[in-house]
């Protein structure tokens, strides 16, 4: 585990009624969602009911070359996906979208989130003859829908029935021969929104993907809602709406989402500034300059500076040309990575008391190296403030905190962490304030990774270990 959290993925879908290039639109949409997953990506296109696709490991521009895009032809619908794995190995077979061939017709599916009952459902499906080709829980969702399709009148009825069985976090974009469907789980753990270009419709994990193709934001998909687009236009199925209190992952605002996105009614950029303002009120300090760790720490630093009256400064320059393969797992490479990725602006910090703002601390190793850079550049004091509460517990809903063992805040007190990181003072945003940063959102928030209190039942350690063992064995 690196010293940053990772979200599982981003999804995108488009239904064309205006002669748009759906493949190019999906490409641009995925490019805008690249921050949500850098391990693999894929696209499926529907040409008059024939669904084909292409996927591979790598970044969007690496996978979808001009030659690949040209070979995909054209169509009326397309869905796309970029992935960071939380369940399932990191290989091409687990890339999405998944395309299922079935007697009731083909289906393509892209999924953002993580199921809490994937192990039980997978075992049940295998006992009835299902053969799994991937090690991700997305295939569990696809097979559950396919099974329900045998006895359902339509694919949306099958999706609705499947929602009675799958539990956990899932924002889905599904494509059948004639329909494009968006689905959000009843608690709304992960974001999903709808946009429009002329008479065409778009679904995306974040509104920034709509902006990238000139689509107008229409609204967020409600928790528990199914939206179906076909030749008659959009229609909504709300059978599962209002069944649970919504629990959007609060870390979408702290780190995952792009600053220019609007998630469930709140601008991410403004939410991060509010987090910084709350930090200044909760953890004031005498200092000369406030700086942020690029990128998600910058907005919070600006909020801290405005609230505290301490001048804001640019403390780091980030190297924009480091690819995803740069950081290697070895210790020596990690040491060098911070220096090459970030360089201090000495004139900003030399001889000054510095307030350093970052979004979170996971293991603490990267934070310690960043503080060391500031000391070497002449900072007389370093006071670190985090725009998230301390991570102490696993996440079961789509981020890569799989246990508490690697979390510095789980094993150490605030004073111990301060000493290990090497700062003069250390302060985290409170859980109460974290839930207030998205001031315009009407949804509730999940903060289970901070509190250990989850909005739904989560797997036991034994169940999770059993699932990981099972999916590992499937690769033998």
Topology:
Blueprint: E1 9-15, H1 22-32, E2 40-47, E3 50-57, H2 60-63, H3 66-71, E4 77-83, E5 98-100, E6 107-115, H4 118-127, H5 138-149, H6 155-162, E7 168-175, E8 180-184, E9 193-197, E10 200-204, H7 207-212, E11 216-220, E12 226-230, E13 233-237, E14 248-249, H8 251-256, E15 262-263, E16 266-267, H9 268-282, E17 289-292, H10 296-308, E18 316-318, H11 331-341, E19 342-344, H12 346-349, E20 353-358, H13 365-376, E21 381-386, H14 408-411, H15 414-421, E22 425-428, H16 431-434, E23 445-446, H17 448-451, H18 461-473
Parallel strand pairs: 14-23, 17-20, 20-21, 21-22
Antiparallel strand pairs: 1-4, 1-10, 2-3, 2-4, 5-6, 6-7, 7-8, 8-12, 9-10, 9-11, 12-13, 15-16, 18-19
Describe the overall structure:
By secondary structure, the chain is α+β, with helices and mostly antiparallel strands. Helices cover 32% and strands 24% of the residues. It is built from 18 helices and 23 strands. The strands form 6 sheets. Strands 3-2-4-1-10-9-11 form a 7-stranded antiparallel sheet. β5 and β6 form a beta hairpin. It starts with 8 loop residues before the first strand and ends with a helix. The C terminus is likely disordered.
C-alpha termini separation: 24 Å
Percent in helix = 25-40%
Q: What is the overall shape?
A: globular
Strand % is: 15-25%
**Category from helices, strands and their pairing:** alpha+beta
Number of strands: 23
Low-confidence stretches: 324-329, 462-476
Number of helices: 18
Q: What is the alpha-carbon Rg in Å? A: 22 Å
User: What would the average pLDDT be, to the nearest integer?
Assistant: 90
Spatial order of strands in the largest sheet? 3-2-4-1-10-9-11
- What's the main sheet like? 7 strands, antiparallel
């Amino acid at each position: 585990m690196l010293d940053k959290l990772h979200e599982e993925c981003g999804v995108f879908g488009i239904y064309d009624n205006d002669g748009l290039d759906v493949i190019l639109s999906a490409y641009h949409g995925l490019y805008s969602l690249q921050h949500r997953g850098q391990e693999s990506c894929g696209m499926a296109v529907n040409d008059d009911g024939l669904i084909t696709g292409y996927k591979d490991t790598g970044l969007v521009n690496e996978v979808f070359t001009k030659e690949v895009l040209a070979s995909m032809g054209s169509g009326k619908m397309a869905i796309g996906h970029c992935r960071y794995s939380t369940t399932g190995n990191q290989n091409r077979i687990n890339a999405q979208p998944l395309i299922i061939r079935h007697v009731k017709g083909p289906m393509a599916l892209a999924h953002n989130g993580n199921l809490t009952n994937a192990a039980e459902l997978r075992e049940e499906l295998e006992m009835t003859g299902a053969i799994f080709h991937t090690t991700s829980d997305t295939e569990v969702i696809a097979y559950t829908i396919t099974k329900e399709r045998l006895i359902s009148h339509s694919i949306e009825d099958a999706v609705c029935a499947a929602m009675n069985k799958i539990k956990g976090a899932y924002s889905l974009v599904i494509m059948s021969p004639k329909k494009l469907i968006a689905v959000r789980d009843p608690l709304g753990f992960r974001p999903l929104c709808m946009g429009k270009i002329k008479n065409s419709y778009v679904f995306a994990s974040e509104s920034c993907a709509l902006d990238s193709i000139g689509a107008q934001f229409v609204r967020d998909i409600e928790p528990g809602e199914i939206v179906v687009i076909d030749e008659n236009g959009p229609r909504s199925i709300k059978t599962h709406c209002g069944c649970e209190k919504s629990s959007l992952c609060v870390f979408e605002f702290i780190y995952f989402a792009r600053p220019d996105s609007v998630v469930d009614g709140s601008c991410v950029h403004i939410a991060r500034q509010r987090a910084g303002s709350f930090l200044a009120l909760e953890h004031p300090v005498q200092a000369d300059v406030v700086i942020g760790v690029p990128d998600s720490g910058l907005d919070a630093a600006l909020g801290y500076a405005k609230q505290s009256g301490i001048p804001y400064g640019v403390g780091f320059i980030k190297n924009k040309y480091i690819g995803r393969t740069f950081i290697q797992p070895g210790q020596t490479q990690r040491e060098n990575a911070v220096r090459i990725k970030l360089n201090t602006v000495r004139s900003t910090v030399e001889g000054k008391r510095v307030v350093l703002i970052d979004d979170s601390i996971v293991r603490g190793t990267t934070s310690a190296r960043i503080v060391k850079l500031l000391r070497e550049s002449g900072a007389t004091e370093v006071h670190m403030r985090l725009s998230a509460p301390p991570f102490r517990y696993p996440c079961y809903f789509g981020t890569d905190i799989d246990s508490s063992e690697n979390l510095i805040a789980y094993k150490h007190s605030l004073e111990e962490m301060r000493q290990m990181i090497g700062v003069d003072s250390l302060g985290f945003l409170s859980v109460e304030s974290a839930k207030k940063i998205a001031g315009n959102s009407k949804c509730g928030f999940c903060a289970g990774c901070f509190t250990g209190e989850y909005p739904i039942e989560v797997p036991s350690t034994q169940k999770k270990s059993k699932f990981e063992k099972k999916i590992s064995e499937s690769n033998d």
